Each structure stands twice: as C-alpha cells, then as structure tokens.
C-alpha cells in the first residue's frame, strides 16, 4: 500500500457538513432521518415500518432517499428538502476551537454536501462558522445527483476551479471518499467520539481501514489545529 497523502501541498479544504462539522453524538441527522420517514409515509401512503425499509433501500441504492423518491415516484426536490430539513437545530452549540482551526487553514474552504444551502446556513449559524467558508456546493448545485456519484464531484471541482491534487476532503462516510481519493485528493474520515453514543447504521461506521482513506480522526478541531500555521 502507498503511504497516506500529506497536506503540505493543499490549498483547498473541502468539508462535508452533517456529522463532519458537528459531532456525531449530537444526532442532529436523526431528526432529519425521522422527517424523511414521515415524508415517505405520507407520499406513498404506507406504514412506518414499510416506509423505513423503502427509505433505507433508496439511500443505499441512490445515494439519498430523495433521489430515489424523485426517480421512482415523481417527488419535487423543493418539497422534499423543505420538509425534511424543518428540524430543531438547538442541540448544536458554538464550537470556537473548530472555528479557529478552520479559519487558520491556508487557502479556500468549501462545503460539499448532499443537503441544501438553507440547512447549511442554519447549521453554520449555530456553530458560529458563518464567515469561515468561501462557498457551498449543495444537492441543488449537484443537479440532485448526490455523493458518492462521480459526476457530482467532477461538477463540484469544475464549478469551483478546484485542482483535486491540491485539495483535501473531510467526510464522515468512507464511501464518499472513494472518488475524491481516486481523483487525487487527500482524504480524511471523521469518525464518532468513541466515548459518546451515536445513532448510525453499521455500514456507516465502516471503512476506517480502506485504501482510499488517508487519515482518520475523532477530533476534527485537534486534527486541523495540528495542520494550521501557528
């Protein structure tokens, strides 16, 4: 195996949002997950158990439940996004240590998410990161094709003139780092704090030893602080 890629050459820092820029144990995504289940129930007129099975099947097959609902059931993205992101963001608390570490990184900082800009704005406001990022590439910018689709990463790189060989990608799902690594990015998997209880599917916690994962951290603020110029 080749050694993990370094950060000495990096001038663009790319971050996922959910469970990456805030701790997994906040379980904010659990609220979104529940709203998605409700949406599937209501749209398809099925019970909660069947809706849950459909929701997770589409998530695995299409990258997001939304993509499955759009493709197979004619759902409008705007309706779906407005419904599932209507959640309580109050569990999120300001994280000045992470904010300071991000601010000190040399170069551009971008967000690449399967969520919406509205959701990003709400999360960043709660964390105190509103001014730390240069741009957001969301599911609408991706033309509703979610990560880990290769075309989504390529569109992101093109839209924001990112040289992947000079970029680093931070993600909480190992499968979403496969394409970035193949394109030349330095990849970092952000995993849960082992002392906190998290709500995740087993497969979502896999991949720490994958060849396309250069680095693994359960402390993003500390990890970035070590990379930042003092």
UniProtKB/TrEMBL annotation:
Coiled coil: none annotated. Gene3D superfamilies: 1.10.150.450, HAD superfamily/HAD-like. InterPro entries: HAD-like_sf (IPR036412), HAD-SF_hydro_IA (IPR006439), HAD_sf (IPR023214), Pyr-5-nucltdase (IPR010237). NCBIfam families: HAD-SF-IA-v3 (TIGR01509), Pyr-5-nucltdase (TIGR01993). This is Pyrimidine 5'-nucleotidase.
């Amino acid at each position: 195996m080749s050694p993990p890629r370094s950060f000495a050459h990096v001038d663009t820092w790319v971050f996922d949002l959910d469970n990456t820029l805030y701790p997994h144990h906040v379980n904010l995504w659990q609220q979104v997950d529940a709203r998605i289940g409700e949406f599937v129930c209501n749209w398809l007129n099925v019970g909660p158990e069947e809706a849950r099975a459909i929701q997770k099947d589409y998530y695995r097959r299409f990258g997001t439940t939304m993509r499955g609902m759009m493709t197979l059931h004619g759902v409008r993205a705007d309706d779906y996004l407005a419904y599932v992101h209507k959640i309580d963001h109050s569990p999120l608390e300001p994280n000045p240590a992470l904010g300071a570490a991000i601010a000190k990184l040399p170069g551009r900082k971008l967000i690449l998410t399967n969520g919406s800009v509205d959701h990003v704005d709400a999360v960043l406001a709660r964390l105190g990161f509103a001014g730390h990022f240069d741009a957001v590439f969301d599911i609408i910018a991706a033309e509703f094709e979610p990560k880990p689709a290769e075309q989504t990463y390529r569109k992101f790189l093109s839209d924001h003139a990112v040289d992947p060989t000079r970029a680093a990608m931070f993600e909480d799902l190992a499968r979403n780092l496969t394409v970035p690594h193949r394109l030349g990015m330095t990849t970092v998997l952000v995993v849960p704090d082992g002392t906190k209880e998290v709500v995740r599917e087993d497969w979502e916690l896999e991949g720490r030893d994958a060849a396309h994962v250069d680095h693994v951290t359960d402390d993003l603020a500390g990890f970035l602080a070590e990379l930042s110029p003092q």
